[in-house]
Structures are given as structure tokens and as C-alpha cells.
Amino acid sequence: MKKVIFILIIIAPFYPACSQTAKPDTDLKEQKSKAELFSNKSGSLIQKQFMDIGSLRGCLIQVAQFTDLIGGETTKAVRFEYAYSGAYSSDTKIGLLDMDEVDALIKSLNIIKDKIMPTTPEVYTEIEYKSRGGLEAGCFYSKKQWSTFLKLARFDDKSFVIMKDGDIIQLLSLLNDAKAKL
């Protein structure tokens, strides 16, 4: 009996570690847009085409069309490409917005433009739209003024595109042009 109690005392501290749940399959870093998942399908021959829509603050906006040449399926997305230049390195940041998310982004930007920007909060405030693939758009209130932004990759602070006054109107126009080509 003493041996059983002794073994239980030794094993007990390790029991909680064994019963922890497994990591979920949908880790935030691994979330991808439908277009990314489609274009990365294994066992398929994918054709990628990019139609320029315009640019804003160095961010090129395109309509991306992905076609599976074996299965004949096609999907489209709005593609954002930004060339980041830092003090020690440069890189190209890319974000995709699925075609079924374009209306939600346009609606969100209109709310920001019409209802949020005219307000004057008393504290630091952030408003964000997040797509399933990690693209973010929004605004923040700091130093008594609103600033709008795009963030092309969820966990990459170098993918920020900070916009100036009036840029939100140009972005809405570019998104509507892209929507017409989806």
C-alpha cells in the first residue's frame, strides 16, 4: 500500500501536463483566405493573373484571378502589394481579400468615413476590420486626429500602409473598381 501511495505522489505532478488539450488546427498565424487556399492546392496546375486597378500610398491594388487548369475552377480576390523599405532591409508585403469579403470592407470603410471620422473621442481609440486571411483596415485616434491604415499581414508590423486625409475616399473608389472586375 505504501508503494502505491508513493507512486501516486511521484506521478501526480505530471498528470495535468498529460491532460492538456491539443493545439487547435486553426492557429491564427495559419489562417488563410479562400483564394490563398485555392492557389496553394496540391495536385493542381494553377494559373495566376493580376489586373492592375490602381495604387494608393505605394500600395498596388489588383484583381487576382486563380484558375485550376486541370479542374477548370476559378476564383478571384483583391490583391494588395506594398514594397516596404526599412533602414536595413526591404521586402514586398502582400494581402488578399476574398471576393465575398469586398462588400464588408467597403461597408466598414464607409462607416469609418461617415460616422467615425467626424467624432472626437477623449481617449486613444482604434477601429479595425479584419479579413479571414489577415488583411486589416481601420483607423485610430491619437494626438487629436484620426489616421486611417491598411495592414496587409496580421502579424507583420512592416505591412502597415498609413493613409492621409482623403485617401479613404480613393481607397473606396479603387475597391469599387476592383469589385466591378470580380
Q: What is the element layout, followed by pairings?
A:
Elements: H1 2-11, H2 15-18, H3 34-39, E1 46-56, E2 59-68, E3 74-85, E4 90-98, H4 102-116, E5 125-130, E6 136-142, E7 145-151, E8 160-163, H5 167-180
Antiparallel strand pairs: 1-2, 2-3, 3-4, 5-6, 6-7, 7-8
The arrangement of helices and strands along the chain is: HHHEEEEHEEEEH
Overall outline: globular
Helix fraction, binned, reads 25-40%
Overall structural class, as computed from helix and strand content, comes to: alpha+beta
Give the CATH topology: Secreted effector protein pipB2 fold
Q: Give the CATH architecture.
A: 2-Layer Sandwich
Main pleated sheet:
4 strands, antiparallel
Indicate the proportion of strand residues.
35-45%
Mean pLDDT across every amino acid position: 88
- In the CATH scheme, the class would be Alpha Beta
Q: Report, as a whole number of angstroms, the end-to-end distance.
A: 74 Å
Poorly predicted regions:
none
- Describe the oligomeric state of these chains in a short phrase: single chain
Q: Domains counted in the coordinates: how many?
A: 1
Within the largest sheet, what's the order of strands?
1-2-3-4
Describe it for me?
It is a single chain. By secondary structure, the chain is α+β, with helices and mostly antiparallel strands. The chain has a single domain (28-180), classed as Secreted effector protein pipB2 fold, CATH 3.30.2450. It is 27% helix and 36% strand. It has helices spanning 2-11, 15-18, 34-39, 102-116, 167-180; strands at 46-56, 59-68, 74-85, 90-98, 125-130, 136-142, 145-151, 160-163. The strands form 2 sheets. Strands 1-2-3-4 form a 4-stranded antiparallel beta sheet. The longest helix is centred in the middle third of the chain and has 15 residues, at 102-116. The model has no long low-confidence stretch (mean pLDDT 88).
